[in-house]
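Hi C.,

You asked whether I'd gotten around to modeling the 249-residue construct. I have! Everything is below, sequence then structure, no commentary in between.
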Amino acid sequence: MLDTPMAIVCAVLAVVVSGMAKGGFAGLGGLAMPIMVLANAPVESAAVMLPILIVQDAVSVWSFRRHWSGAVLKVMMPGMTLGVALGWLFSRSVSEKAVLLAVGVVSLLFGVQRMWNERGGRTALPSNSPGWVGVLFGTFSGFVSHIAHAGAPPFQMYVLPKRLERDVLVGTTAIAFAYMNWIKVPAYMALGQFTRANLVHSAVLMPLALLSTWAGVWVVRRVDAARFYRIIYAMMIVVGLKLMWDGIG
């Protein structure tokens, strides 16, 4: 981890992207891990990112603490808990390349889905989906979040059709993922992923993580990000294909 200039650049970019996502640009979060693992080992990358995500969550939750939907959290959190448990079982039984492939698939599918929506397509659920559908998508969110810190796509597919007010959407997302990242801690500890080296790398990147999260909070309240999102989704498709190639090879 972080043993070459390229590895350091990828880690810095991943932390900045993650910070902007936690600040309110929710769609960007799926790009952080694909960038990180372009030049760093995927399992170690996930362990380095988790403490950073937890600190970024705290900033995001505090910034939008007055805006959240209890109805959404009530159906998503139980599924997220189950999904993290399933992700823990998955991580214990597969190779590093399989994890890399999983990150690539998630990145590719999310990028394609969002680009399709940008062009007028519809892949989201109806706004009146029953609660069990939210639990199901919460489970998928927890699963891919555990293995790739990429739980936003299934979460958004259930929540976005509800057309929550902007700050309520951001606040609800912040609380949901803060909860999910905390319950990943015991699983990561059980897998032995919190090594001394990984925690040192997390600490080195932490100031940048805080700065980028506050920047995201500031920017999301002032800028129309539609065109910016389209660029990011296209990047996710390219990065996802690259990681899938590495995982298969």
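If it helps when you're writing up: The two ends are 21 Å apart (CA to CA).

Thanks,
B.
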